[in-house]
Amino acid sequence: MPEGDTVLRAAGAPSERPGGSTARRGAYVASRLVAVALAALTVAAAGRKIVRMPAEDAGASGVATRRAAQEKAARGLGVFHDFRFRDRLPESGITFVQHPTDDSGKFYKPNHYDHGTGIAAADVDGDGRDDLYFVDQLGGNELWRNLGGGRFANATAAAGVALADRIGVTASFADVDNDSDPDLYVTTVRGGNVLFENDGKGRFRDVTKESGLEYSGHSSGAVFFDYDNDGLLDLFLVNVGRYTTEEKGRGGYIVGYPDAFSGHLKPDRTERSRLYRNLGRLRFADVTGEVGPFETGWSGDATFTDLDADGFPELYVLNMQGDDHYLVNERGKRFTDRTAEHFAKTPWGTMGVKFFDFDNDGRFDLLLTDMHSDMSEEIDPEREKLKSRMQWTDGFLQGGANNVFGNAFYRNAGDGRFDEVSDTIGVENYWPWGPSVGDVNADGWEDVFIASGMGFPFRYGPNSLLVNDRGRKFVDADLLLGIEPRRRGKTALPTFDVDCTTEGAGRKACLGQKGPITVAGTLSSRSSVMLDIDGDGDLDIVTNEFNAPPQVLVNDLAQKKRVRFLQVRLVGGASNRDGLGATVKVRAGSRVLTKYNDGKSGYLSQSAIPLYFGLGDAGTVDRVEVQWPSGRKSAIDRGVAVNGTLRVVEPQ
After folding, report:
1. Residue 444: which of 622, 584, 617, 569 has the closest Cα?
2. Edge-to-edge strand order for the sheet containing 417-420?
3. Closest CA to 381 of 473, 479, 489, 468
4. Of 64, 374, 610, 612, which has the fewest CB atoms closer than 10 Å, so is most exposed?
5. Cα–Cα distance measured from residue 548 to residue 491, given in angstroms and rounded to the nearest whole number
6. Is the pLDDT of residue 44 over 90?
7. Closest by Cα among 432, 322, 375 to 111
8. pTM for this entry
9. In 548-607, where does DSSP find H-type helix?
């Protein structure tokens, strides 16, 4: 069994930032806390021998080769790319650190704890700036209030959303009671999921018990959408399957099965996903039996779309160990599995999903990221853009003839037809979790960030940034645009302690070692969100890492060129207040940009943030059109200001 050891932590938890302190002083103090926290990890290793796992890291050493390949590819790139991202974590004031369970460390076993935790964003206090909620496994979740200018303050205690006694998985923001503020739903591992009602000022009240959403199990993604088109957001709760025992570990987590990765072969470990209908007044009813059931395998996440534009959204449910499922909504009465009619093959180990218009033809294409197929073989960096050479048996796969072993991209050909073109357009990468989609160079073409990497005990796996080359293909640009290498070039941190004399049996790091050592494991990201955190008009990226602080990747595009953009925030009336399920078209010059409002912001997570449209060189917006779920339409063709946020209210 690959070894791990106790996770080192900085002493003390981040404290609440008093609102009365000056912003500059707060940012300085917070940046010092981050520096101290990171330094504490190194100091904790003082006096011990540091052993890096793996000792030879092809991922870390392959940077020069990858950079050369990206520079070569960029010579033919026809879109603007003379800008950079820089990790401004210290300047942001954020001191959150993600803490995993010992199942991913001292007692490493390949189970679903190593999938990490999510990050979601919303303007929780109504000040016009989007705030960040980080989910953790041990030690509590944290809400960070956006102060403007890329600076944040810890608002967790005042908001009441820490859940420090539970093993968190992810979070979704949505206005479930239609009172014009984002409420919060958090999933956990057998600790009970939690619904928080927002009072409009960023303070939350636990209404789980009365809501009927207190499910306790192995929950993962939570998707709010209005399946019956009654103007209230319903909840599709994704459950993975039973991967834990009854034994308790450090911090109160429930120890996982050593054979959890084979759980899909054990029918007694099935845990079905559930659909809850919103009854109004913060009350939900479980309608899984009436509208489902949802036989979707070992699912981690899902999303929704309305490809037939009838106002009743379909579900696309991922299967991380088998076939995905596309479920057609029969006008709010029942969901029917019609995967084979639309998607002849799906990835075998799907983790991330996003519908978006890649080529600006007005139709929504589908990107799926496949992590688990990559786990059958550890490869050198030279093969990272190729599909997996599947090493597992057909029995383990439960039949792999109808699977893609890697990322998939389905170009929407119209009339319900999709063509799988992932290799043609270049979306393959290694060890991907989930995508965040947005226009990072504001040119009117949607780009993709993929949070990637496994962490201990595996080699370094870089994050991916795919720049859209005018709807023809994607070009890898993580090294060109500053996503990689990480700040200060780090690919690993001291993360584990072990005494090889007393605890070394079976641990690779202890081979030839005696006494206490510190094991350094590789860094890796899990979830991400794209949003403009500093208000300068371009999209930034914030990640939730695994066993590390986040990355706050600030985009300097607005400092390199004149940026033209439009943000659209929807306010539903007959439709749900968030306008989830609406389609928005922005006409600027000769171009029409189309987005579907699904809130899907990154791996496992759902956010309540405005839709961002990069306008390229267009100096004006000619028309904004909204097709609401209710069937009503909005059209604004006068007074649309470029470089601002347009609030569109559904007509009566």
Report:
1. 617
2. 350-356, 365-370, 408-414, 417-420
3. 479
4. 64
5. 11
6. no
7. 375
8. 0.93
9. 557-560
pLDDT tens digit sequence for 144-170: 999 999 999 999 999 999 999 999 999
Task: Report the candidate in 127, 120, 125 with the shortest Cα–Cα distance to residue 181.
Answer: 125
Name the band, by pLDDT with cuts 50, 70 and 90, for residue 69: very high
Token pair recorded at residue 190? 């057998």
SS3 for 492-544, per residue?
EEEEEEEEHHHHCCCCHHHCCCCCEEEEEEECCEEEEEEECCCCCCCCEEEEE
Q: How many Cβ atoms are within 10 Å of 211's Cβ, its own excluded?
A: 23
3-state secondary structure 66-112: HHHHHHHHHCCCCCCCCCCEEECHHHHCCCCCCCCCHHHCCCCCCCH
C-alpha–C-alpha distance, residues 510 and 504, integer Å: 5
Using alpha carbons only, give the angle 332, 333, 334 rounded to the nearest 5 degrees.
100
Closest CA to 136 of 162, 154, 173: 162
pLDDT higher than threshold 60 for residue 34: no
Q: Are 419 and 363 in contact (CB under 8 A)?
A: no
Q: What is the mean pLDDT of the chain?
A: 92
Q: Which residue has the tokens 């569109």?
A: 648
Q: Is 211 helix (H, G, I), strand (E, B) or coil?
A: helix
Q: Are 241 and 256 in contact (CB under 8 A)?
A: no
**In angstroms, rounded to a whole number, what is the distance separating the alpha carbons of residues 552 and 25?**
19
> What pLDDT score does 46 carry?
55
CA distances from 214 to 166, 185, 257, 274, 285 (A): 13, 10, 24, 12, 11
pLDDT at 91 over 90: yes
- Residue holding tokens 């792999």? 400
